[in-house]
Specification:
heterodimer, A: mainly beta, three-stranded antiparallel beta sheet, globular, B: mainly beta, 51% strand
Chain lengths: 109, 119
């Protein structure tokens, strides 16, 4: 069981927007603004797409956006594209350790 | 672009030891903390350990504490993970990742090294 809770899967059509939630506790997401999100394709390493809740690393499209409210963080992908189909993981600092969500498979139908 | 290349994975029997290496290049390795993160086949990401840029601090996941040791050699731009008393549930792809400007957020990741613990 992962420390952070994500839906197993979400789906959307090209051009639509989807949101992936990531629920933690007052000891991780609720305590630190150090939430990050990663995109992972099969057989590949994770890629950082959002850090510190809502910031973009260099070269990442602004179609990805992040937010946080209380103990829940969210990743929104707008203008869905077929190439967005991948696994997405949230991540947070928690008491001198890093915790991940179980991952969400995004299907672009 | 940051490069991280893991090596040392393979098949090992339960109870045995293995050391993974991660060679870093194209950034100032001695200025960044480093992480190990693993992923069992078909599963999610599990953080393993972190080491400060100057080796002064290390932290571990409860699942590996006392069995795994993270270390680094800044003169060789290399990160290590020494794994002892391996168990079948340690089987995973092991990634090294750079702690970014904010140490606790891994930013760049290597391609991973597969460790299989099986008799």
């Amino acid at each position: 069981q992962s420390a952070l809770t994500q839906p197993a899967s979400v789906s959307g059509s090209p051009g639509q927007s989807i949101t992936i939630s990531c629920t933690g506790t007052s000891s991780d997401i609720g305590l630190y603004d150090l939430v990050s999100w990663y995109q992972q394709f099969p057989g590949k390493a994770p890629k950082l797409i959002i850090y510190e809740v809502s910031k973009w690393p260099s070269g990442i499209t602004d179609r990805f956006s992040g937010s946080k409210s209380g103990t829940t963080a969210s990743l929104t992908i707008s203008g869905l594209q077929p190439e967005d189909e991948a696994d997405y993981f949230c991540c947070s600092l928690a008491d001198n350790r890093v915790v991940f969500g179980g991952g969400t498979k995004l299907y672009v139908l | 672009q940051v490069q991280l290349v893991e090596s040392g994975g393979g098949v090992v029997q339960p109870g045995r030891s293995l050391r993974l290496s991660c060679e870093a290049s194209k950034f100032n390795f001695n200025l960044f903390g480093m992480h190990w993160v693993r992923q069992a086949p078909g599963k999610g990401l599990e953080w393993v350990a972190v080491i400060w840029f100057d080796e002064t601090k290390t932290y571990y996941a409860d699942s590996v504490k006392g069995r795994f040791t993270i270390s680094r050699d800044n003169s060789k731009n290399t990160l290590y993970l020494h794994m002892t008393n391996l168990r079948p549930d340690d089987s995973a792809v092991y990634y090294c990742a750079r702690g970014g400007v904010q140490l606790w957020i891994p930013d760049f990741w290597g391609q991973g090294s597969l460790v299989t613990v099986s008799s």
